[in-house]
Amino acid sequence: MESNRPGEGDGDAVVENAKPKLKPPPLYKVVLLNDDFTPMEFVVHILERFFSMDRTQATHVMLQVHTQGRAVCGVYPAQIAETKVSQVNEYARKHQHPLMSSMEEA
Ligand code: TYC
């Protein structure tokens, strides 16, 4: 409540509007890298399993990596991108393929 007593008003106080402080969280691209050894079918499986692509999309992205050296599999907030990269790299390692993914700011 405002006080009505003399001397307790806010006089000519100017209240600046505070700048909104919350920036949207940065997003990261998960990038799949080409190599000479990982079977194409395994890469398609990775894209279906970890990036929820259907076979047509997954084949397209796999061929993009194969011909251009790399392709973006998805764009996510930092923690999700980190998890995708770990899952892909660990899964490939477990199956003894050199396939690698990495992340970079979008
Ligand atoms: N270049 C691989 C081959 O010829 C296929 C491949 C595609 C590997 C995409 C990795 O991220 C990759 N078998």
List keywords for this structure.
106 residues, alpha+beta, three-stranded antiparallel β-sheet, 3 helices, disordered N terminus, binds L-tyrosinamide
Q: Brief description of this entry?
A:
This protein has helices at residues 40-51, 55-68, 78-94, and strands at residues 27-33, 70-77, 100-105. It is α+β, with helices and mostly antiparallel strands and 106 residues long.
In terms of topology, how is this protein built?
Layout: E1 27-33, H1 40-51, H2 55-68, E2 70-77, H3 78-94, E3 100-105
Antiparallel strand pairs: 1-2, 1-3
Please provide a written account of the structure.
The chain has 106 residues and is α+β, with helices and mostly antiparallel strands. It is 41% helix and 20% strand. The chain contains three helices and three strands. The protein has helices spanning 40-51, 55-68, 78-94; strands at 27-33, 70-77, 100-105. Strands 2-1-3 form a three-stranded antiparallel beta sheet. It is elongated. It starts with 26 loop residues before the first strand and ends with a strand. Residues 1-10 have low confidence and may be disordered. The protein binds L-tyrosinamide (TYC).
